[in-house]
Amino acid sequence: MAKTTNETIEALAADIGKDVYMDIAKWHLYLSDAHLHTVLAEKLFPLLSSQSVDENQVLKILQSIPVKLASGKKEIPLSDFLPMQSQVNLMDILEKYQREAW
Description:
Elements: H1 5-19, E1 21-24, E2 27-30, H2 37-49, H3 55-64, E3 66-69, E4 74-77, H4 84-101
Antiparallel strand pairs: 1-2, 3-4
Helix pairs in contact: 1-2, 1-4, 2-3
């Protein structure tokens, strides 16, 4: 039985949350702990459903998600927090979903 859109987004968010992290002062803060995994999955899902995942589009989405610091005094794009390995992990997850889901 095929997964519904919500089930797919939830599964994608779970995978992103446990495998994609922000690097802050040499600490790995996983996106699930930062409560950013679901937001990212929701924004990435249209790329998966149109089977048009590419690194440039993913980077634009990462740049569009603000991470608030100091109770919102400053906002920095999520892309600025993700080290290269974390971006590779994200692309691997997206490629896996694109192959399996469609």
